[in-house]
TrEMBL record:
<keyword id="KW-0175">Coiled coil</keyword>
<feature type="coiled-coil region">
    <location>
        <begin position="152"/>
        <end position="179"/>
    </location>
</feature>
<keyword id="KW-0418">Kinase</keyword>
<keyword id="KW-0808">Transferase</keyword>
<dbReference type="Pfam" id="PF07730">
    <property type="entry name" value="HisKA_3"/>
</dbReference>
<dbReference type="InterPro" id="IPR036890">
    <property type="entry name" value="HATPase_C_sf"/>
</dbReference>
<dbReference type="InterPro" id="IPR055558">
    <property type="entry name" value="DUF7134"/>
</dbReference>
<keyword id="KW-0902">Two-component regulatory system</keyword>
<dbReference type="GO" id="GO:0016020">
    <property type="term" value="C:membrane"/>
</dbReference>
<feature type="transmembrane region" description="Helical">
    <location>
        <begin position="133"/>
        <end position="152"/>
    </location>
</feature>
<keyword id="KW-0472">Membrane</keyword>
<dbReference type="GO" id="GO:0005524">
    <property type="term" value="F:ATP binding"/>
</dbReference>
<dbReference type="InterPro" id="IPR003594">
    <property type="entry name" value="HATPase_dom"/>
</dbReference>
<keyword id="KW-1133">Transmembrane helix</keyword>
<dbReference type="InterPro" id="IPR011712">
    <property type="entry name" value="Sig_transdc_His_kin_sub3_dim/P"/>
</dbReference>
<dbReference type="Pfam" id="PF02518">
    <property type="entry name" value="HATPase_c"/>
</dbReference>
<protein>
    <recommendedName>
        <fullName>histidine kinase</fullName>
        <ecNumber>2.7.13.3</ecNumber>
    </recommendedName>
</protein>
Length: 389
């Protein structure tokens, strides 16, 4: 509760400055009670308040407050009013100038405060030895307060630079993530474009075959038309997704069929040839999937195994399991490598790409270190549109 009250009061600078100036006022009252100043009570209060009240605006108008307390202190010297506890307000105002303004302003405030100390020593101290001691003491105090203000100014500037650097790094990280997402979506869009182009090519071939066979072989023509219907629906579904994905306007290369589930065996052999012991298993009855979904499955497995090669360590082994359910296919890629202990390569966009690919079809990807060591990637991708909805 006290911390909450303090945090609320910190937003109002005059309240905080008044709280910091309160001990000076209490010390002044103690001197008045002891009657150590030898002056009228009202005169004492007038001089003390004229030095302490400006401190309420010490950080709101620092230079004006410093000028006011210095002028009041100079008036004390002129009318021969002895130094008061409230004259410490000059040091507080000097600290504020040194900590919150440029070096030139701090140096000017130091010169004014030092000049005031010289005048006070010459005015209120008699005897050369006592004056010299008083001058030395006041100089040390004024210089110490000024150096403390400079130190706080440097520290605050350093902390501000750290905060700005942290904010800049966070913005750069967010920008890098956005760029990676855009690049991955562009890659997905190119691949989906290839899938749709391949489907359209199949439709054209089947249509040509149906046109030739319609008079001589009605059954074959009907079969070709059914193939056209199925392929056309798949192509339309893939095209709708493609329009929802960002694509960079670059050369996509020749339109060729992309890898799918059938090419996972070749991928497994390539990974084994690269030196990673790998088990590959399939559970359930394989389901018919569009080429886009098959491509997503292939890329997710490829990215997961690539991460194992990079970060698993020299003695790691992996296992890939495809489980066909009634409405979805589950991919599970596990390894017994270093897992969370692996040193990141500074990029970290592979998992992001896998999640983007699964999200296109309404699926999800979960990845993270395994409790017993190693790393695990689990992806669930629906195989039909009604499941996705």
């Amino acid at each position: 509760m006290v911390r909450r009250f303090w945090n609320r009061c910190r937003g109002t600078l005059p309240l905080v400055d008044g709280f910091l100036a309160a001990p000076l006022f209490l010390l002044s009252l103690t001197g008045l009670v002891n009657n150590g100043y030898g002056m009228n009570c009202l005169v004492f209060m007038a001089w003390s308040l004229s030095l302490l009240l400006p401190l309420l605006l010490r950080r709101t108008f620092p230079r004006s407050v410093f000028a006011v307390v210095c002028l009041v202190s100079f008036a004390q010297v002129v009318v021969n009013v002895p130094p008061l506890v409230a004259n410490v307000s000059v040091l507080m105002a000097l600290y504020t100038i040194a900590a919150g303004h440029s070096f030139r302003w701090g140096l000017a405030a130091l010169a004014v405060a030092e000049g005031g100390g010289v005048l006070a020593a010459l005015r209120f101290v008699s005897g050369w030895e006592d004056q010299r001691y008083s001058l030395l003491t006041l100089t040390v105090i004024v210089a110490g307060v000024w150096l403390l203000g400079l130190h706080m100014r440097t520290r605050r500037a350093y902390l501000r630079s750290l905060e700005e650097r942290a904010a800049r790094l966070e913005r750069e990280r967010d920008t890098e993530v956005q760029v990676a997402m855009a690049a991955e979506r562009a890659r997905i869009a190119r691949e989906l474009h290839d899938v749709v182009a391949h489907n359209v090519s199949v439709i054209v071939v089947q249509a040509d075959g149906a046109s030739y066979a319609i008079d001589t072989d009605t059954g074959r023509a009907r079969q070709a038309l059914e193939t056209i219907s199925v392929t056309g629906r798949q192509a339309l579904a893939e095209m709708r997704r493609m329009l929802g994905v960002l694509r960079e306007s670059d050369d996509a290369g020749p339109y060729v069929p992309q890898p799918g589930v059938a090419q996972l065996t070749e991928l497994v052999e390539q990974i084994r040839d690269a030196g990673l012991p790998l088990d590959f298993g399939v559970e359930g009855v394989p389901l018919e999937m569009s080429e886009g979904r098959q491509l997503a499955v292939f890329r997710i497995v490829q990215e997961a195994l690539t991460n194992t090669l990079k970060h698993g360590g020299p003695r790691a082994s992996a296992r890939v399991l495809l489980h066909y359910g009634d409405d979805a296919i589950e991919l599970r890629v596990t390894d017994d490598g270093r897992g969370a202990a692996a040193v990141p390569d500074g990029r970290g966009h592979g998992l992001l790409g896998m999640r983007e690919r699964a999200a296109v079809y309404g699926g999800r990807v979960e990845a993270g270190p395994r409790p017993g060591g190693g790393f695990e990637v689990v992806a669930l991708i629906p195989v039909r549109e009604e499941v996705r909805r």
